[in-house]
Write a structure and sequence with these properties.
Blueprint (H helix, E strand, L loop, with lengths): L1 H27 L3 H25 L4 H12 L4 H4 L1 H7 L4 H24 L3 H7 L2 H23 L11 H13 L3 H10 L6 H30 L4 H36 L5 H19 L4 H14 L5 H26 L8 H28 L4 H10 L5 H12 L5 H27 L5 H14 L17 H13 L6
Length: 491
């Protein structure tokens, strides 16, 4: 109770500080570096404070960071005190480039972390059910979003943007679930080891993986400004070659680089430096083949997360700086670009409501159809549909990229962000309601009991196994067994 009151108090203090900081900046004539630091402080403090309040009510903290940016932008601060909002978050290109640079780096860092949390082994364990759910869960809302874009008013299109390209962005924004938020709710409900919980999380993982490939191809099309079959074929072939290389020879290169650094370097955080260098190199490769750097960062995260050398300590170091600095800044900057005051217009408000309905029906319906195809019960299909309806970070990233490329207008960007916030906040209570209605079968209960016994052993908590052996047959066999037990390879 004390912690909850403390969280609410922090959020209550953070919001009144906004005009105080603005007044101080206005009176002292703060330098551009000082304003940059002030922007960082406001985005971090306000986003963290609101996120803490949301977590009390079982909502994801990342939405607090996005809402914090919305409140600091034209939606609240700019509406109540326009001069202060223009002073702190100035339209000056040089000033904006400073905070935008941190936000763009935050996108890559966020995708690195998302990739590291992508457990492909879980997908392989669950089986075919998650493939039909993810396929239908992506195809149905994508088609609805693309069709909706063909009928939306011309005023929602950015100047010079083709309707087909805008439709690809809108369809992508409506079709991808947020793995982080889905996993958070499933874990909170103690369903992560249940069959249905693993199916829901695995489906979200596949969607996320497919989604970033689709996003990369969509961005490749958007860079041309229109659809060209030649450039589209080049982009698809380039992405296919990159993915094939990454998960074959690239995996070995990443594993060896991390292992060699861990065993050779004596300086602090050397492995973290190499991981960031790997992320940057793979992001550059995807940029060179004509797609966005986010795909390279995401794939780098998957490979790094599968490395047998990666310990919880190293992962914790990366997670700390990403969640404490880069995520709040990115989502805060995205929120600054949304102007909810445009929803005062009845037409835009109705269009936004229609977008939320289309997104929810498309996502729920697609996932439910996929569950039916997989032979799941109706109650399980409802739970899957509720679980896959969280948008969150992915849609905000897609919309931010579309806005920066001039594909999406500010009004359409605001509508997509509003849709992401509403569907994300609605998902946790609906999924909790659906999961409570599902009893545990006898076979599943026995499996969980066996896993509980195995979890108490030392192998489940093993990070790295060191065995000293000779070059003989017995020694090599012992090294092989150690690699199998440690889920890695003998060094």
């Amino acid at each position: 109770m004390f912690n909850q009151r403390w969280s609410v108090a922090c959020a209550a203090i953070a919001l009144p500080l906004m005009p105080a900081f603005a007044f101080a900046a206005e009176k002292t004539g703060m330098s551009s570096e000082g304003i940059f630091v002030l922007e960082l402080i406001l985005l971090l403090v306000v986003g963290r404070g609101i996120g803490e309040v949301l977590e009390i009510f079982g909502q994801p903290a990342v939405m607090g960071q996005l809402i914090g940016g919305i409140l600091l932008g034209p939606s609240l601060l700019g509406w109540m005190w326009p001069a202060a909002e223009r002073l702190i978050f100035a339209d000056d290109p040089t000033q904006k480039s400073m905070i935008n640079a941190v936000a763009q780096l935050g996108v890559l860092m966020l995708l690195l972390l998302t990739g590291m949390e992508t457990d492909l082994r879980l997908v392989r364990r669950v089986g075919r059910a998650c493939f039909s759910i993810s396929a239908a869960g992506v195809a149905v809302p994508f088609a609805l979003g693309f069709i909706a874009a063909q009928f939306m008013p011309d005023t929602l299109l950015a100047a010079g943007s083709e309707r087909i390209v805008a439709g690809l962005f809108l369809g992508t924004a409506l079709s991808i679930s947020s793995v982080k938020i889905v996993a958070m709710v499933v874990r909170d409900m103690n369903f992560m080891r249940r069959d249905l919980g693993q199916i829901i999380v695995s489906s979200a993982i596949i969607e996320d993986t497919i989604g970033w490939v689709v996003i990369a191809i969509t961005i490749g099309i958007a860079k041309k400004g229109h659809v060209e079959l030649g450039s589209l074929a080049f982009t698809i072939v380039g992405v296919a070659i990159f993915m094939a290389f990454s998960f074959t020879l690239g995996r070995r290169i990443v594993f060896d680089a991390i292992r060699w650094t861990n065993d050779t370097f004596r300086s602090e955080y050397a492995v973290v430096t190499v991981i960031l260098a790997i992320m940057g190199a793979m992001a550059l490769i995807t940029d060179l083949i004509g797609v966005h750097t986010v795909l390279g960062a995401f794939v780098a995260g998957i490979l790094v997360g599968e490395s047998p050398i990666l310990s919880r300590h190293i992962e914790g170091q990366l997670r700390g700086i990403i969640t404490a600095l880069f995520m709040p800044v990115f989502f805060g900057v995205a929120g600054l670009s949304a102007d909810l005051t445009v929803l005062i217009d009845p037409q835009l408000a109705l269009l936004t409501l229609a977008l939320v309905v289309i997104a929810s029906i498309g996502k729920f319906g697609g996932a439910f159809i996929g569950a039916e195809v997989a032979g799941m019960s109706r109650a399980e299909g409802i739970a899957v549909g509720c679980g896959m309806n969280a948008r969150g970070s992915t849609e905000v990233i897609v919309a931010s990229i579309g806005l920066s490329m001039g594909v999406l207008s500010h009004n359409l960007f605001t509508m997509i962000v509003t849709m992401a916030v509403i569907t994300t906040l609605a998902m946790p209570p609906t999924l909790r309601w659906a999961l409570r209605r599902l009893p545990m079968g006898e076979q599943e209960k026995k499996r969980l009991e066996r896993e509980e016994i195995d979890q108490r052993g030392f192998v489940a908590n093993l990070e790295r196994l060191l065995v000293v052996v000779d070059e003989g047959v017995v020694g090599r066999f012992a090294a092989y067994l150690a690699g199998v037990i440690g889920a890695g390879q003998p060094t």
